[in-house]
UniProtKB/TrEMBL annotation:
Family: Belongs to the CD36 family.
Pfam families in the cross-refs: CD36 (PF01130)
Membrane-spanning segments: 20-43, 459-480
InterPro entries: CD36_fam
Superkingdom, natural source: Eukaryota
Annotated Gene Ontology cellular component terms: caveola; cytoplasm
UniProt membrane topology term: Multi-pass membrane protein
Keywords: Cell membrane, Disulfide bond, Glycoprotein, Membrane, Receptor, Transmembrane, Transmembrane helix
Subcellular location: Cell membrane; Membrane, Caveola
Protein name: Scavenger receptor class B member 1
Regions of compositional bias (Pro residues) in chain numbering: 503-515
Amino acid sequence: MQRAKFLDKLKSGYLRKWWLVILVSLVLLAFGAVVAVFFSSWVQFFIGHEIVLRDGSRTFKWWQQPPVKPVIKIYIYNVTNADEFLIDGAKPIVQELGPYVYRQEWEKVNVSFHDNMTVTFQQRKVFYFDAEASAGDEEDMVVVPNIPMLSATSQSKHAARFLRLAMASIMDILKIKPFVEVSVSQLLWGYEDPLLKLAKDVVSKDHKLPYEEFGLFYGKNGTSNDIMTIFTGKGDITRYGLVDRWNGKTHLPHWKSDSCNRLNGSDGSIFPPNITPNTTLYVWDKDMCRLLPLKFQKEVVTNGDVLGYRFSPADNVFGDPEHNSENECFCPNGPPCAPNGLFNVSACQYDSPVMLSFPHFYNADPALLNMVDGISPPEKEKHQLFIDVQPQMGTTLRATARVQINLAVSQVMDIKQVATFPDIVFPILWFEDVISGLPSEVTDLLHLATNAPGVAKSALSYGLFIIGGVLLVISVFCLIRNSNRQETLTLESSTHYVNKPANPRPPRNLIPPFPTNGTTKKEPIDVLNPGFVADGNDMS
């Protein structure tokens, strides 16, 4: 019965306001829990919505015309003892010249969006020689292996003998030698080669090379002929920035398996968001002729105090099948395959025996470095390729792509120009394509976008928990306190009425009390009050 009375008191209008406060506090606590659990997901959804490539958006403008200042630094291996190597079989000696520095401007042109959430474009890159930052001039003369000639002799190695003899005669007539002396500008951007000129006149149209001059960067200064199609991220943010097609193809035709022929990597400028240290990033570059996998290395702080993740290739990314079994599919004509630390790109370089490596044969077989003199031992800080990425948004913050171009030369009988050549890998040059950082207008936005959500989440969730908790404690305390006080008052009142002794009010005395006159003897009323004495005569 006491409990029923207590519940009745709790339901009273006097205490009903505290029930409302309790309800509000519980709602605040529940909302705080929801914020703590789901706030990060809301932020990820918002970021995914904002970074999608849409015509006219800020992200699209930065993607189309990157607000960066790319610089490429080129180092050339000048052969200083070419005659001794050819005549006496001396060990080649090279002198590393450079850097020859070029500033770049990047832009994506002929952009068109498609209904399948993709966008197609062509890449335009313009190079400007920076004489002040360079250690030499574009007109510096260098001696390097004759790549067109040595490529032709390599391809004829297994041809009929009369073809090899005919090639040797043609080279004699044209005075073609295994080494050429050209300017830095010619080596990079192109020079007229007699073999290419001859091939233009005698080779059928279907087998002609797509260029008339030879240069290691020939055709790269300007708008590329290649047509790229990538995903905008709309509908599926996990494919944001990944290649869908290259020149209409979804796979390359060169390698043994679809996994090695696939193209679905990034061009290195943007990646799908929400990157973790366990993520493997894939970069696609047509000159590398494959996807390059990048693994997490460490956390870094870039311009504007923006936190980034550094990704680099694994040490065995160019390993032979013995050191990296996943590379077995990149050896279509082997074994033998390319030496450990080299990647054979001849399949997509018109069968030229071009091998890629990292500068100074970093992470490659030490025997390659010992084939020539004049190259210092590799150093990780100077020769490693890396990309720094903002993990939440997938934006590239900083990057340095370092690659070395080599030529694999072998002895070919019946061609006297190379009959004495040993099997050797000649380093030609190496370069580093550098993006040192993003401008402040971008880093400020990245800093805000990556740090503000965490602060907002903590402030909002903790604020809701504290306010809700305080209100709940106060309301429960006041509710119990007021209820106990009312219960106490009720119990005291009930006890008062139950335990009070019966003491009825005496009846009102209409007749004054009898005077005692100092005696306790009761006198007759007629003696005490003669007025009340009856007339005896009358009564009689």
